Amino acid sequence: MARALEQLAEGVHYLPGAVNSLIVEGADGQAVIIDSGLDQGQARQIAKALSSLGLRPGALLNTHSHADHCGGNAELLERYPDIQIYAPPLEAELIRCSELEPVYLYGARPPGELRNKHLQAQPSPAEPIGPGRQRLAGRELELIPCPGHALNQYAVRIAGVLYAADGLFGPQVLAKHPLCFCQDSALQKRSAAELGDLQGVRLVLPGHGDPSADLSGLAEENLRHFQETSARILRCCEQPKSAEAIVAELSSASSLPLWYLDRSTVLAHLSELISLERVDWKLSGVPVFCLRLP
Predict the structure, then answer these.
(1) Which is it for the CA torsion 243, 249, 251, 255, positive or negative?
(2) What whole-number distance in Å separates Cα of residue 6 and Cα of residue 25?
(3) Count of CB atoms within 10 A of residue 26's CB?
(4) Does domain 6-235 match CATH 3.10.310.10?
(5) CA-CA distance, 149 to 182, in Å (whole number)?
């Protein structure tokens, strides 16, 4: 059952769900939508929420290109043909060419199971937007780089509210997913620490999870989780193993698409550990990873 629209601050509302979406009141009856969710169903809920507020969308901002955050774009564009869609520059390219998302996860054009709505949104004409203070639909937003989960992801700060996108995850999400997806684990950790240090944030909303008044506590919990993931992967390398063997040892995934997300996450942490000279890798039929000897 769909949850009701909730207010976070004056003129700032969010639609709770598996992926959260924001509606920010702008000027002259306009609104900014932040993240359109996974599919047509969430887009329809956003449209219903806009109607209940007496608003029309002037802009849609995608914080990053993953399908669960931009999968409603096509439906919203069909309903509101004049809406302007924006995203961080690299993420905008991937939203326009959405078939690339399952390709970079799989390493080639994947089988049909990896070309579903969870891993490939319909393409939409996103325009690149830079970080810092930006005015959309007559409302000023602060776009804060927080790469790692996605390479060019933004968080959004407005009216004392920080929408952390997937720079931070809610506690229940961390507990459910021992391997939280990332494309660069070093950047993921740095972004979590930097978000936690932001001043003047009254309420933080992760892309997945509930609002919290404890930004620093949430950031610390995320950082510990990401660091423990690296530590677990490092322990796996006490004996030489392939990336696939490490995934099999650590993964709780029960489907092919989730297994490939876990594989990408393990590879991201292995890249970081190699750069830190904690792990060596070599070809032995397949690439294997092992602790670097002192």
Answers:
(1) positive
(2) 13
(3) 22
(4) no
(5) 4
The predicted pLDDT at position 294 comes to: 66
Q: Token pair for residue 57? A: 């969308």
Pairing of strands 154-158, 161-165: antiparallel
d(CA 175, CA 111): 30
State the Cα–Cα distance between residues 280 and 75, nearest whole angstrom: 47
Distance of alpha carbon 30 from alpha carbon 238, whole angstroms: 57
Exposed/middle/buried for residue 53 (C-beta within 10 Å: 0-12, 13-18, 19+): middle
Dihedral class, residue 138 (left if φ above 0, else alpha if ψ from -120 to 50, else beta): left
Q: Which residues, listed in sequence order, are joined to residue 32 by a DSSP beta bridge?
A: 24, 59
The residues near 247 (Cβ < 8 Å, ≥ 6 apart) are 259, 262, 263, 266
Domains of the chain by residue range: 6-235
Determine the Cα–Cα distance for residues 192 and 197; give it in Å rounded to an integer: 9
Alpha-carbon span 93 to 89, nearest angstrom:
7
Cα separation, 103 vs 115, in Å, equals 9
Closest CA to 92 of 22, 163, 182, 153: 153
- Nearest one of 55, 202, 14, 159 to 23, comparing CA atoms: 14
Let me know how long the chain is: 294
Residues 190, 226: Cα–Cα separation, whole Å: 10
- pTM for the model: 0.95
Q: How far apart are the first and last CA of the chain?
A: 56
Q: What is the pLDDT of residues 8-63, one digit of tens each?
A: 999 999 999 999 999 999 999 999 999 999 999 999 999 999 999 999 999 999 99
Handedness of CA 251, 71, 64, 213 (dihedral sign): negative
